[in-house]
Amino acid sequence: MPELPEVETVVRDLCAARLVGRRITGVRVRWPATIADLSPEQFKRRVVGRTIRAIRRRAKFILWELDQGRVLAVHLRMTGRFEVIADNRTAGKHVHVVLLLDDGRRLWFHDTRKFGRFYLLQDPAPLLARLGPEPLANDFTARRLAEALAGRRRAIKPLLLDQSVVAGLGNIYVDETLWAARIHPLCAAHTLSPAQIRALHRAMRRVLRQGVRNGGTTLGSGQTNFHSPVGGAGRNADQLKVFRRTGRPCPRCGGTIERMQVAQRSTHLCRRCQPQEITR
DNA sequence: AAGAATGTTACATG
DNA sequence: ACATGTAACATTCT
Which biological process terms from the Gene Ontology are attached to this UniProt entry (predicted)? Predict the structure, then answer.
């Protein structure tokens, strides 16, 4: 579900819901594996009483900065989802963590597939140490992208999915970026021309910014699809050019969008716009 | 009703 | 050290 634009949308939504300044007055853990490294009891003991000082994003992590120098880093993985609850509904079976707040509201963590993780840390630096640059940061230039790709002989798609190369892209936005840059997903990174790297850089930022502007991508209508914490679906699905559009016409050239497997992920492309370079 | 699903990591092999 | 491939996590959706 969540890639950079979705996680950014979640963080903005949590901030807009005025969670900063609230104190956590209680914790319920219904699926202990969600809490990394700590027992639910240890987690509860360390979190209850803390005040939320700030909520930020790094790559696909949501960073809850608490008082006493603690940070709760949450990774949503595939189906993790926060929901701010202001009434007295009862939690459904996929709500695995509940945080009670001092203003009477609750925060639910839904996660159908149970891959999401909460890391409660004194210092998040080790967790974040291996992440590559933020693609939307002001200082992420085409030159920095070129540096990140320098000397790499791997195919470009698996490299862009690798969070230590660039942080925040996932399967949707990589396919959309490569289509926009007219680059074949199997193209070896070291064969990209400077012009292609500039195109890739521009495409990546345009595609991600559009995703953020549209409040993320919600695919289909199931429970497991992305929703921001106050319940909204993202509006970006309409803007996707190739992702899950197999067999439909390429919006740029009219060719047929194809699906192939790359790096064990389903990959969508237009072969006419994204020719595979001959690599040796 | 089999296969795929927005993510990551550990492990094996080349 | 680099690269690639597979399995695993757990459940739902098409």
Answer: base-excision repair
- The structure tokens 């609750």 sit at A106
Q: Is A113 annotated as a binding residue?
A: yes
Q: Report how far residue A240's alpha carbon sits from residue A251's, in angstroms, rounded to the nearest whole number.
A: 10
A100 residue type, one letter: L
The answer to whether A261 CB is within 7 Å of strand C is: no
- The nucleotide whose C1' lies nearest the CA of A164 is B8
Marked catalytic residue, from A22, A50, A60, A182: A60
Q: Could you read off the pLDDT of A18-61 as tens digits, one per residue?
A: 999 999 999 999 999 999 999 999 999 999 999 999 999 999 99
Catalytic: A265? yes
What value does the mean pLDDT of chain A take? 95
Distance CA A279, CA A129 (A): 33
